[in-house]
């Protein structure tokens, strides 16, 4: 084979190799195109909010529909802007995310606060990873909204704590009752033995007064523990509130105005009037204490249908028709911590505790198969809503 033939053979070999290389490149290109298509499909169909940002500038270059839905923003409002410009995350949370990405290239379930359009603050878990797109670094962000999950968990934990306290309260109350029965009985016997002894009477009278005060405290403990004695009957909450208005007005300062809204078409409930008077008196007294100087307390009744969706928001509430008793005040309000503890026995924001008033309220409402909710913010007053199921025997 001469030199010319070898040259042609070499050229043919190089052409074949070049064709094979081109074929492989086309296969790789096709695979990359297919991979990109799959990525974009998964990106936009993801059930979780996902966004891609430039690593260097932090600008959003793409978001899926769920991300728009979560933040309340249109795509045009998001693309090309940074999260600090949008005011999404507190600086401290964003700094923690940046440190995680710089140290390991990813963040797994970072607990963050997300301020969405309109000012609502959500609790989210951030999953992020540095990825390469055409050789440039980008950050893939996946956001999981756990706000509702955290709220329900807090409600469940609070309910469990209250149940544990109620169990303890019931045990203490029964022991108190046993001891007080003996004390009061023996004091009665002493009064019979020493009927005309003034000196003994001076000691016996305050002793009996203290014993009866402890007996009332025991009754409140049992009410909180939902073991009190109840004598229920069918009654109209609107008529009931009207009947005890003089008692309520007597218990609040003269500069506090008491308003009512008591429609007579509200369905009746099955309740113990004495226990319900304790509930309303305690709630109104709390409202009056929250008002410094002039103010307003509004007591209203109404009926409300609790749907399946609404019941899911409150684990202790079942769907159905309820009568709502609401007490609103324009007092100083409460922060989240105080609101979460207001039904604990002897809890008070004052130097001297108020005792078992609101704790007993909680137990009485629960024992009536009802639910009590509190809405309050510092400086914005408080709304206490009591829900009682419509009486089964009501006509």
Explain this structure to me?
Helices cover 51% and strands 23% of the residues. With 395 residues, the chain is α+β, with helices and mostly antiparallel strands. The chain folds into 3 domains: 100 residues, PAS domain (Beta-Lactamase); 75 residues; 157 residues, Heat Shock Protein 90, CATH 3.30.565. The strands form 3 sheets. A 5-stranded antiparallel sheet has the order 2-1-5-4-3, with helices on both faces. A 5-stranded mixed sheet has the order 7-9-10-12-11. Strands 6-8 form a two-stranded antiparallel sheet. Helix 9 crosses helix 12. The longest helix has 47 residues. The chain is elongated.
Range of strand content? 15-25%
Assembly type of the chains comes to single chain
> Number of domains in the coordinates?
3
Count helical runs: 12
CATH class of the largest domain: Alpha Beta
Just name the CATH architecture of the largest domain.
Answer: 2-Layer Sandwich
CATH domain fold name of the largest domain: Heat Shock Protein 90
Give me the strand/helix succession.
Answer: HEEHHHHEEEHHEHEEHEHEHHEE
Q: Any idea what the shape is?
A: elongated
Helix-and-strand structural type: alpha+beta
Q: Catalogue the unreliable spans.
A: 351-355
**Largest sheet geometry:** 5 strands, antiparallel
| Number of separate strands | 12
Helix content: 40-55%
CA distance, first residue to last residue:
115 Å
